[in-house]
Amino acid sequence: MTWTRNGEQVIPELGIIEGQIYTSRLLGTVSRRFCGFRVWPWHAKVDRMSFHPVGCESGLKRVAAAWLLSCLRSSALLMLIAPGAAFAQSSCAQDPGVQKLIQAGSDTHRSYQERKHDYGEALRLCRQSTLAYDGLSVLLIQHQDDEAALQLIQAGLKVMPNDPSLTANLAMVELSAGRPKQALQALTKLQSTAKVEFYRGLAYRALRDDRAAQKSFSMSFEMGYEDPYVLYALIEQDHALGDREAGLEHFSIFSERYPNSPWLHVLLGNAYASRHDVANAEAEYKQSLDLDPDLPMVHYALGRLAFDRGDYLSAGEEFRKEIELDPPFGEAYLYLGVALRREGKNADALPFLEKAAERDPNFALTYTQLAATQIQLQKLEEALRTLQVAKQHFPDEAAFPAQLSNLLYRLGRQEEAKKESALAETLSKKGNLQGHDASDPHTSQLAGGGQVAAPAPGMASSPFSSSSRGEEREERPTVEVHVDSELDPLKKCLARAEKQCAIDAFSKLQDPKLKDQPEYLDLSAQVMSLEGKKTEALAAIDQAIKMEPKQATYLMTEGQIYQRSHDQNRAIQSFLEAAQLQPGWVEPAYSLGMSFFMLGNEDNDTEYYDRGARHFKVALELDPNCHKAEFMLGVVDAMENHLDKAKQHFETALKMSPQNPYYLIHYGILLKQLGDTDGALREMKIAETLDQSNPLTYFNLGLLESQLQEYAAARKQLETAVQLDSNLAAAYYCLGGVYHHLGLADLSRAAYLKFQEAKAREQQEQTDPVEAAFSSSDSRTSTPK
Q: Going by C-beta distance under 8 Å and a sequence separation of 6 or more, which residues neighbour residue 467?
């Protein structure tokens, strides 16, 4: 079956189109007494616990089951889901006065208070009236008074323990309160019917159990519950499981039975959004609002588009509109809170994140964001309670005890911190790192933990690595595996990003037993990558991954090898897989940012810089102390000529890591660009005292001093630079100019020849991506005069 849209042939195939994009025509006309399903784009992969993008960039993600609960509150469908009072009523229930009150309570044209009063009177006259219990509980649920509904249902079940209507309503309330496990327990007491299986499907989906949800929805439909809601939910699970054949079959049925709907524009908008075609996505969403201004989910979708392009003010406005339309929808609160956080309004964000946790307590990302906000607001005890709750909800998730360990260390509770760290390591080794959420964003922070991204050969340590020369990597609880203490010297060399040290330490590992261990293979791959042996490095890390496919650090190593060899697409894929295995780990988010930044360098495309910046912001959300992400935000701003903003980021990074010579060098370069030569010279001199082995320090000092016409001092600095790195072509070029000013013509010509030789070698070497982008135009891009 095919259709045409805008003159193009489209294929109804789970969001796939030949040529451009299309999404399945899933929803038909729905009576206004029902509300339509929430929908989301067809992502083959979903993030679990963070806001970094699905397939490289965030777009709309699948939302929780709250959308249907909101629909049921305001619709007659709630009455249909319960099996109904098809059993004998007690004698008092047959009383005409009681029946009249129940009839009045069911009159939807009367006010809520009037209906509530009539049902209450009916129950006062007859405690055994199933219809009164059922009608009043439904009314309370529809008006979001879940606590009162729960108390009423529990009271009714004491009188009538096996009442199917009350049991179904109990399941509804439990789902609405974010307790799908309890909802399933209630549903097991009911005979399997089409509607009961549909309800079970909702509970399984809230638990992110796609296979069980698909089975329940399929049974519901096959048992005769032919409703567009059921069929849509089934198609959604087909897609989540990658069951293309079933999805096409169910789509065909859907399109034939429900051919027209304003939701078509929403579906098209989702498809455009999944392809990052923002203009067409917004156009479709707005058309859907033209047809129905109260359509749920659409403002959320528009908010996500604004959120992804960094327009947090507009995103916040859309999320607020969604909350007004659909108060139970937890993810609108979550994304509003995150949008406020990204504007630096942590205090304003806190109540929305708290509400998100209340609305959807089974969404791990909410706890990550809430805890991070509480920590930034110095509400450490509250953050501790948040993480403890998260740990209870997700007992198999290594990320939460790791984050707890970090916080406990900060609170000075060392012994408790060690226990949490040990638990995190145990869970990691078990490979139980799958998320409990089917989203984007998603996790808790393993700040500073995990694999090291060492710089390429010839590079000084930089944000491209996990540490800076002269500064040991911060010791924090991490999720790691340790084969033998013999590997520790090599690990320390890699942590300091010292190439020769790593090569020497690796050459001393002679024990043949080590060579069969995956950790040894991982470390050897890192060393070979430093040596430029890409093929050998990839072979080693591939073997380690096959031995321990659930070890996220090995995927990070693989990604870093690809990253250094300029294969950014494969690097991004490896980083995304690592993030899925170890949710909340800051390194994948940061490394994704670096890959996009490097694509910006290679393609001279500012859009890639912006994408990189989004990932650096995600890294800071996972770990507010991730100074290298803060520094890289400054680099991006500097590249886009936002020098004042860059200065703020650099200064923030230096507050986090004040003895970082790499940051000091580039802060000095920035100050020079801002015209503060005294400040630039001061910062570079400090960098020199901290690290006397970095050629970039001496090069930039020499460049600055030559511009200040201090040629003798410049000569000394530049000669030191080329002694430390004979491939630093720019230093030879500048040195030639300094020799010329000093009247040393022969040395000037020799320096120029060295410049040409080094330039040829430099093009074959790996270079620091920050230095390549950030270096001064007069030293990197000018030609000899």
A: 452, 461, 473, 495, 496, 497
Look up residue 756 and give its two tokens.
Answer: 């040409």
| CB 496, CB 529: distance < 8 Å | no
Token duo for residue 93: 């229930």
Structure-token pair, residue 717: 């600095």
C-alpha span between 767 and 430 (Å, rounded): 38
Partners of 302 in beta bridges: none
What is the C-alpha to C-alpha distance for residues 284 and 269, in angstroms, rounded to an integer?
Answer: 5
Q: Given 3-state DSSP classes, what are the helix, strand and coil percentages for the chain, each rounded to the nearest 5?
A: 65, 0, 35
Q: Output the pLDDT for position 233.
A: 77
Comparing 44 with 710, the larger pLDDT belongs to: 710
Residue 446 per-residue DSSP state: -
Three-state secondary structure call for residue 361:
coil
The closest of 503, 505, 468 to 486, measured between CA atoms, is 505
Q: Nearest to residue 152, comparing CAs of 164, 144, 169?
A: 169
**Mean pLDDT, all residues of the chain:** 76
Three-state SS across 145-178?
A: CHHHHHHHHHHHHHHCCCCHHHHHHHHHHHHHCC
Q: Bridge-partner residues for 141, per DSSP?
A: none
Q: Where are the alpha helices (DSSP H) in 567-710?
A: 568-581, 586-603, 606-622, 627-639, 643-656, 661-673, 677-690, 695-707
| CA atoms of 574 and 614, how far apart (whole Å) | 18
Asked if 721 contacts 705 with a C-beta cutoff of 8 angstroms, the reply is no
Burial of residue 191, with CB atoms counted within 10 A of its CB: 0-12 exposed, 13-18 middle, 19 or more buried: exposed
Whether the predicted pLDDT of 386 surpasses 90: yes
The pLDDT tens digits of the residues spanning 712-738 come to: 999 999 999 989 888 888 889 999 999
